């Protein structure tokens, strides 16, 4: 199997630009670590937001493509901040935006993982 990675990803994984016999092990190592961190942060996210808040965030963000990853931090916050009062279904905008602002970058990525997982299983 061939995996073509953009140069920016190759640099982050510390892979040579052209070929590297260790590429597969470096990718597996990074994915393993990412999954460990995500599993812990996803549990934390589920303690920060209520199910109603997560459902609302899902509905507001269902059409967002969170690529590049930088969109994870502010993309959700902007959607909630710009949502109509009607679409909030009685939930408190300032409370939700406050929670979103307090998330670390990795927690924001975990929230996107939760939303994407929900979308795939819905």
Describe the structure.
- The protein has 122 residues and is an all-alpha fold.
- It is built from six helices and no strands.
- Helix 2 crosses helix 6 (105-121) and helix 4 runs antiparallel to helix 5.
- It is elongated and about 50 Å long.
- The model has no long low-confidence stretch (mean pLDDT 86).
List keywords for this structure.
mainly alpha; 6 helices; single chain; 122 residues
Give a short synopsis of this structure:
The protein is mostly helical and 122 residues long. It contains six helices and no strands.
Cα separation of the termini: 30 Å
What radius of gyration results from the CA coordinates? 17 Å
Strand segment count = 0
What best-fitting shape do the alpha-carbon axes yield? elongated
Helix proportion: 55-70%
Task: Quickly give the structural class.
Answer: mainly alpha
Low-confidence stretches: none
Mean pLDDT: 86
In terms of DSSP E residues, the strand content is under 5%
Note the main sheet: none
Order of helices and strands: HHHHHH
Number of helices: 6
**Oligomeric description of these chains:** single chain
């Amino acid at each position: 199997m061939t995996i073509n990675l953009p140069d920016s990803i190759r640099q982050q994984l510390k892979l040579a630009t052209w070929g590297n016999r260790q590429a597969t092990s470096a990718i597996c190592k990074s994915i393993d670590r990412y999954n460990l961190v995500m599993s812990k942060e996803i549990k934390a996210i589920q303690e920060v937001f209520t199910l109603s808040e997560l459902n609302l965030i899902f509905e507001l963000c269902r059409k967002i493509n969170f690529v590049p990853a930088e969109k994870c931090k502010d993309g959700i916050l902007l959607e909630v901040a710009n949502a109509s009062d009607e679409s909030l279904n009685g939930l408190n905008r300032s409370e939700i935006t406050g929670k979103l602002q307090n998330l670390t970058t990795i927690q924001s990525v975990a929230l996107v993982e939760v939303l994407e997982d929900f979308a795939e299983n819905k």
